[in-house]
Design goal:
By secondary structure, this protein is α/β, with parallel strands linked by helices. Helices cover about 25% and strands about 30% of the residues. Strands 3, 4, 5, 6, 7, 8, 9, 10 and 11 form a nine-stranded mixed sheet that branches. Helix 1 crosses helix 2. This is DUF1853 family protein.
């Protein structure tokens, strides 16, 4: 699974290219992963923390980047001000980069027109615009805080010479039944599946397909046929319990023609 996570991360597209919303996107290096061997990722970590291990492994495999420091804590006395994800050195340009990492799953709400506000987590607890605000107004300014001066000095780094970027990868999910969506200036290649409300999923259209309810770390992966798929009825029984807990699962849907598709089932109306 560790190698699958690394491949899934690498194949996930950035949510935008160049600069948008006042944040510059980190250009991930092109890699030939034919001879790549994944290192062990601690099993009990949350998916976001596992992605940090994946990001570091892939950069270490790259010939371009060197990881100078990671997870740098910034404290003021006993108060935790925040944390910097990565300080990197580009071996070709010799430039230093402060990179904040994000790997997100967002559904696209068609009722909202502004791109920065229409992306939300499937449980509506994770909003894209709040993440961007945090990057701009909290994470990036930490680099210039007095509390970080000593650490940067020990690394012989000048914050004024460090380029700040975000490696912001995402999988987006459009409403089921909507064939085409304009999401500029976001990257349309990030659309990897659909989402649907529970009541709409419990209809005749979906009864001929089979389903696999994924574990969260499988969300990163492309759907695979080598799982145990169950009937629509069995899937409904399992999902119903998750709906009561306000937990939106991701399914891999196998249609009668064998086509595989990612599908989020949301609990909210």
């Amino acid at each position: 699974m560790d190698k699958e996570l690394c491949f899934g991360f690498y194949e996930t597209h950035p949510l935008w290219v160049y600069e948008q919303f006042g944040v510059t996107q980190f250009k991930f290096p092109d890699l030939d992963l034919l001879n790549f061997t994944a290192q062990l990722i601690p099993e009990k970590l949350r998916l976001g923390h596992k992605m940090e291990y994946v990001f570091e492994q892939l950069l270490q495999y790259s010939k371009t980047w060197e990881v100078l420091a990671k997870n740098i804590l910034v404290d003021h006395g006993k108060t935790r001000l925040g944390e910097l994800d990565f300080l990197l050195k580009n071996r070709e340009t010799q430039r230093i980069h402060h990179v904040e990492l994000a790997y997100k799953f967002y559904i696209i709400n068609p009722e909202i027109t502004e791109p920065i506000y229409r992306l939300m987590g499937p449980n509506k607890r994770d909003m894209f615009y709040t993440k961007i605000d945090k990057l701009r107004n909290k994470q990036f300014p930490l680099l210039f805080s007095n509390e970080l001066t000593e650490k940067l000095h020990s690394l012989e780094l000048n914050p004024l010479e460090i380029q700040q970027q975000a490696c912001f990868k995402a999988q987006l999910f459009s409403p089921y039944g909507v064939d085409s969506m304009t999401i500029r200036p976001l990257n349309k290649k990030c659309i990897q599946g659909r989402w649907i409300r529970f009541d709409d999923f419990n209809t005749t259209e979906f009864k001929k397909s089979k389903y696999y309810i994924t574990y969260k770390q499988e969300w990163v992966l492309m759907p695979s046929a080598n799982r145990l798929f169950t009937s629509h009825y069995e899937t409904l029984l399992n999902i119903n319990l998750r709906m009561l807990k306000e937990n939106a699962p991701m399914l891999w849907m196998r249609k009668p023609n064998g086509q595989l598709e990612k599908l989020f089932i949301v609990w909210w109306k």
